[in-house]
Write a structure and sequence with these properties.
Helix content is about 40%, strand content about 30%. The chain is α/β, with parallel strands linked by helices and about 150 residues long. Strands 3-2-1-4-5 form a five-stranded mixed β-sheet.
Length: about 150
């Protein structure tokens, strides 16, 4: 099983944002950290994008994956089936359809479960993801989150 911790951050919400990821595979004795940022985005987009990028990073299809996130938005949408309903209504009046569709495509290739963890509560991997996300959001010359900028224009 692959354990993945994710977090997203946006300073201003919307504002400069980033995501952080810690991937852990005990079977392969692997720990990998990833992060990236955008010039203007939202916290929810970064929380979801962290999950997407983590899954897209996996090289072995049909991996058993447990994702830890402090985002109720992301965890509930997936674990409580909200996403399935949003797909049925073609995301009418729902935000972040571009990312949810991207998540839905990649999740089909793995056995994914999500578990909510309380943020800023001392979980070392969650805290590290937060550090990575904030760091990424503060980098110079951040690229556009095209999905967000197209959504609001």
């Amino acid at each position: 099983m692959i354990k993945i911790y994710t977090d997203g951050a946006a300073r201003g919400n919307p504002g400069p944002g980033g995501y952080g990821i810690v991937l852990i595979s005990e079977q392969h004795n692997l720990r990998k950290e990833l992060c990236s940022g955008f010039r203007k985005t939202t916290n929810n987009r970064m929380e979801l994008l962290a999950v997407i990028v983590a899954l897209e990073t996996l090289k072995i299809p049909n991996s058993e994956v447990l994702i830890y996130s402090d985002s109720s938005y992301v965890v509930n949408a997936i674990e409580k089936g909200w996403l399935n309903n949003w797909l049925k209504i073609n995301f009418k009046k729902k935000k972040n359809a571009d990312l949810w569709l991207r998540y839905h495509r990649i999740a089909q290739h793995h056995q994914v479960r999500l578990r909510w963890v309380k943020g800023h509560a001392g979980n070392p991997n969650n805290e590290r993801c937060d550090q990575l996300a904030v760091y990424a959001s503060k980098q110079p010359n951040l690229p556009a989150d095209v999905g967000y900028e197209n959504q609001v224009n």
